[in-house]
Amino acid sequence: MSKRKRRHLSAEFKARIAREAMENQKTIQQIAKDNDIAPTQVSAWKKELESRVSEIFERKNATNEASVNFEKKSARLERRIGQLLIEKEFLEGKCNELGIDTSEKL
Q1: Same domain, 91 and 106
Q2: 79-99 pLDDT, tens per residue?
C-alpha cells in the first residue's frame, strides 16, 4: 500500500465543497467521490459553514470597536507607566540629594 502525499486545499475549494453539500443536490458521498476527498471531511466543512454563516452578517464595526477599546486602554496604561517612571526618577534624585541609599530594599 503506497502512502498518499498530503494535499493542501485552498479555502475557495473548501467553501465550494461545503456550499455544494449544503445545497443537497448530491449526497455527501457523491461530492466526496467526485472531488477525491473523504466524506467525513465534506461533512466537517459543511458543519463549519453552517455554524459560521451568521458571521457574514455581523456588524463589521464590532471588531473595530474592540480594537479601539484595546488601543485606548493601552494608551492609558502607557501614560501611567510614563508617569510612574518620572515619579521614580524624581524620588531617586531626592534620595541622592538627602544622602539616602537607594540600593537597600525594604
Answers
A1: yes
A2: 999 999 999 999 999 999 999
